[in-house]
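Class prep. Protein, please:
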Amino acid sequence: MAERRRYLSVRGGEWAFAAVGLPLALVGGGYALAVLYAGALLSLTVLGLPFVVAALLGARGLGALHRRLVGRLLGERVEEPAALPRPVGAVARGRVVLTDPVAWRTLLYLVLRLPLGVLGFAAAVALPLGCGWLIGFPLWGRLLEPGPRPNPWLDSASALLGLVLLSAVPGALRALSGANRRLARLLLGPARAQQRVRELETARAALLAENTDQLRRLERDLHDGTQARLVALAITLSLVEDALAPAAGPDLGRLHTLVDRARGQTDDTIAELRRLTRGIHPVALDGGLAEALPGLTATSPVPVTVRLDLRERPGPGVERAVYFCAAELLTNVAKHSGAGSVELSVTAADGRIRLLVRDDGRGGAALGAGTGLTGLAERLAAVDGVLRVDSPPGGPTVVTAELPARL
């Protein structure tokens, strides 16, 4: 029953896109074909290049219209491409437009959208009307020719064929809607190179902001913590010097107390510095992930099972990213999941490294849900990594980070 309901469930936007999209498909397909035909004819004249430049700018506008239509009716959000740069001079601007991959891909989309638009209109409008005519064929025949029918089996076959075809309408619409979504994602969004540049810019901005925050926090901790401890140690040493200088001779009891105090302040300062430097570069990583991760999991309040398959050692920057990613994920498990056990596995082979953290908690984790996963995904993107989260309500939660072994 659930499969049948899913098969029959067609969103209103899909019907509207199939019905309303035909005129736009005809206009867009005709525009693209006319541009290609006229551009080829005018390519040997002085009007050829200006015509193609204007036509490509128009294609960008049609692409924006189709992008909004796909977003509103099909629920498929297609990222808007970057705006064209505006260099100085008509020749330079024309060269930018002629080499714009977004405009050429939009022309290809308009050409391919034409047959899909015709098929969609046929599935949403023409096919249901034809099915209604077939199902009502016995009635139409009796109204047009009263009296006994010479071929009564034809009426039954017509009604049966109409019902069969009508049952295929939802599946056809869903298939065509899926094809339109994939086509829009492929051709109406930014080019892969542009999208990659945008992702790297976003990741770089996030990484710079995070590093700035870390530096400010480190400066504050050094000023308010370590510096204060060193000042206290200097004062204690000054008191030791005073205790050695009196005319009656050194006060051994006071000296013993002051030396103990100085030793304790030194130990506290060393521990403070060790804590601060651990956030910059964990000392455990000097021996690689095989030594660092078991030590990290040993401090987790939730029992962790560690599985490592490190056939090759990643680069230092990647090791550091994997280490802090594992630390962040284990912290999230302890704070938010309510899990009783965690499994952490790391595999490094064939130039890729994969970190998987699985817990048996309550689930419901998602990127952007306030558990730090969004920031973690941005930091991984800075090293060309990808974060995937699978956390249905009730659990289990599986978070996978995959990134290249070397940058």
User: Anything to note?
Assistant: The chain has a mean pLDDT of 78. The longest helix spans residues 192-244. The CA atoms of residues 91 and 101 lie 18 Å apart.
